[in-house]
Design goal:
Elements (H helix, E strand, L loop, with lengths): L7 H9 L10 E5 L2 E5 L3 H9 L4 E3 L2 E5 L15 H9 L4 E6 L15 H31 L4 H18 L11 H8 L9 E6 L7 H13 L3 E4 L1 H10 L2 H11 L6 H12 L2 E6 L4 E8 L4 H8 L3 H4 E7 L1 H7 L2 H6 L4 E3 L10 E6 L1
Parallel strand pairs: 3-9, 5-6, 6-7
Antiparallel strand pairs: 1-2, 2-4, 8-9, 10-11, 10-12
Helix pairs in contact: 1-8, 4-5
Bound molecules: guanosine-5'-triphosphate and magnesium ion.
Guanosine-5'-triphosphate binds next to helix 1 and helix 8.
């Protein structure tokens, strides 16, 4: 998300266009505004080399490009309002901020001012959340009047949240008990979602607008990435294949393509870990949140694995790698049998044994 003309679609193209030609990791565009990228993963490549007869399936990330949010979007101004609903369906927000200087590209308020630009967009999310919370509060208040204790507790929580939002405090910054966080879940408030700031730099690279964004993000304790959106989008269009693309980018002094930067930041932001399966015809990577237990990880593969879960056979990827084959590992008794409480580690190779 971001202001109109911040470069959201350009950044989206930078992420999607080049990837489409990286065969193993297609970033295929579902429609002009929605793309899925296979996550490049060296561990998956190594694992696949132990099972060359199987197909390699990377885990994926989906990115949605929405229309610019203008002041009043929360009340239906511009195209933004319908897209606020789109944000509700996402796990994280990429806030694209214009840092490039170009007189020929209109700015909604006339000129770039990073702090104000960011606040304008975030204000719309706060307003939308305020509306959601107030509607819920009216409903909860009715139930609370009947003496319902749970409703009374929820009402207290809602009042606290509404005060926070009115004071321009995003919900992600309000200290909440885990139970309270759970209560919020079904409301899916926009300002509770984690944010990654994306500085859209011009051809000239880092400038004072970028410095302003970096200090704003760091002041909030929020992660940021910087990319030269238009340059990367153009390179992605022009290059024939990933090698040429990397060569073009390094001519411009860019070491890491936009998609890689995004993925690394997104994994950290969402506290994701990757685990692997080698069953059936596929060697496959899966993504879950840190702290996920084995049955819930299994449910990623098949919904009923959670209930049918008996045990998980877990292999350490490094140990498997040095053993060379799964059989060697099995014969040496180095496959861990893990129960329902097992917390999946980043890199685990897992066989789910189900009833
Ligand atoms: N000079 C310069 N222009 C850029 C850069 N990034 C984007 N633009 C231009 O800015 C204009 C708007 O870019 P878009 O990517 O369409 O912006 P957007 O945020 O998707 O805009 P909306 O969808 O209308 O909200 C286009 O003409 C881009 O070519 C940049 O790094 N430098
Ligand atoms: Mg756009």
């Amino acid at each position: 998300m971001g202001l109109p003309n911040a470069g959201k679609s350009t950044v989206f193209n930078a992420l999607t266009a080049g990837g489409a030609r990286v065969e193993a990791y297609p970033f295929c565009t579902i429609d002009p505004h929605r793309g899925v990228a296979g996550v490049p993963d060296e561990r998956l490549d190594r694992l696949h080399s132990l099972y060359p007869e199987k197909r390699k399936v990377p885990t994926t990330i989906e990115v949605v490009d929405i229309a610019g949010l203008v002041a009043g979007a929360a009340q239906g101004e511009g195209l933004g309002n319908q897209f606020l609903a789109e944000i509700r369906g996402c796990e994280a927000i990429l806030h694209v901020v214009r840092c490039f200087k170009d007189e020929s590209i209109a700015h909604p308020t006339g000129s770039v001012n990073v702090r104000r630009d960011v606040e304008m967009v975030e204000a719309e999310l706060l307003l939308k959340d305020l509306e959601t919370l107030q509607r819920r509060k009216e409903r909860t208040a009715k139930v609370a009047r009947t003496g319902d204790r749970a409703a009374k507790a929820e009402l207290e929580l809602l009042v606290r949240l509404i005060d926070g939002v009115k004071a321009a405090m995003p919900l992600r910054d309000l200290p909440l008990a885990p139970a309270e966080q759970n209560q919020l879940k079904d409301l899916s408030p926009l300002t509770a979602k984690p944010v990654l700031y994306v500085a859209n730099l011009g051809e000239e690279g880092e400038n004072q607008h970028f410095e302003a964004l970096r200090s704003l993000a760091e002041g909030k304790g929020a992660p940021w990435i910087a990319l030269r959106g238009r340059l990367e989008a153009e390179v992605a269009e022009a290059a024939q294949g990933p090698d040429e693309r990397m060569a073009f980018l390094s001519e411009w002094g860019i070491e890491q393509p936009a998609l890689e930067k995004l993925l690394q930041a997104a994994y950290r932001l969402l506290k994701l870990v990757t685990f692997y399966t080698v069953d059936g015809p596929e060697v496959r990577a899966w993504t879950v949140v840190q702290g996920t237990r084995a049955p819930d990880a299994g449910a990623e593969i098949h919904g009923d694995f959670r209930d049918r879960f008996v045990l998980a056979e877990v292999m350490d990827p490094e140990v498997l790698w040095s053993a060379g084959t799964e059989k060697t590992l099995r014969d040496a008794g180095k496959i861990t049998r893990a129960g329902r409480d097992y917390v999946v580690h980043d890199g685990d190779v897992i066989h789910f044994i189900c009833a």
